[in-house]
Design a protein that fits this description.
Elements: H1 4-18, H2 23-30, H3 34-41, H4 49-58, H5 63-79, H6 92-96, E1 103-108, E2 112-120, E3 123-130, E4 140-143
Antiparallel strand pairs: 1-2, 2-3, 3-4
Helix pairs in contact: 1-5, 2-4
Length: 144
């Protein structure tokens, strides 16, 4: 199961880090406490729509862009069967395709490459990247 708050937090963190900005800079611009913004980015807190809009504004992003990015990540994860199975339940042939311990590579229609790292039996990190990036494309990381 993918937690929406974690995908939103990862998308916000990726945008902030992509701009090489600190939590303090963004929290000040969004008028939210640094600790609360940190908890949002880590997926521990779910922001209200007003707070999410303020954070997007502080990052110079449109709310619709962020939500589209989050929606695409969730949709991609939903299409991948067995992404969140525990490592001990993973079939032997899938484990053999792993490029690293606990990491499996999955490619969707040649446009998006997805790596899945199984951090624990109940936690997986999903990283999607465009195979042929354009100026508008960004890496998206989510954990569930």
């Amino acid at each position: 199961m993918i937690l929406l708050r974690r995908v939103i937090g990862d998308a916000l963190r990726a945008r902030r880090q992509g701009q090489q900005r600190t939590l303090r800079e963004v929290s000040t611009a969004a008028n939210v406490s640094l600790g609360y913004l940190s908890e949002i980015e880590r997926g521990h807190k779910e922001p209200s729509s007003e707070l999410l809009a303020a954070i997007c504004d502080a990052l110079g992003a449109r709310l619709s862009e962020l939500l589209l990015e989050v929606s695409d990540t969730v949709a991609l994860a939903e299409q991948m069967p067995g992404v969140l199975v525990s490592m001990q339940d993973e079939p032997a042939d899938a484990a053999a395709k792993s490029t690293n311990r606990g990491v499996r590579q999955v490619t969707s229609d040649g446009k998006v490459a997805v790596s899945v790292r199984q951090d624990s039996p109940f936690k997986a990190t999903l990283r999607s990247t465009r195979v042929r990036p354009t100026e508008r494309d960004r890496d998206v990381v989510c954990a569930a």
